[in-house]
Amino acid sequence: MPPLNVLPYDREAAVAYARRWAFGRNPAYFNFETLGGDCTNFASQCIFAGAGVMNFTPVYGWFYRSADDRTASWTGVEYLYRFLVGNTGAGPYAEVVPPDRLQRGDIVQLGRETGDFYHSPVVVGFSGNNILVAAHTYDAYGKTLASYRAAVVRGIHILGVRK
Question: What domains appear along the chain, each with residue ranges and CATH number?
Answer without folding.
Answer: 6-162 (3.90.1720)
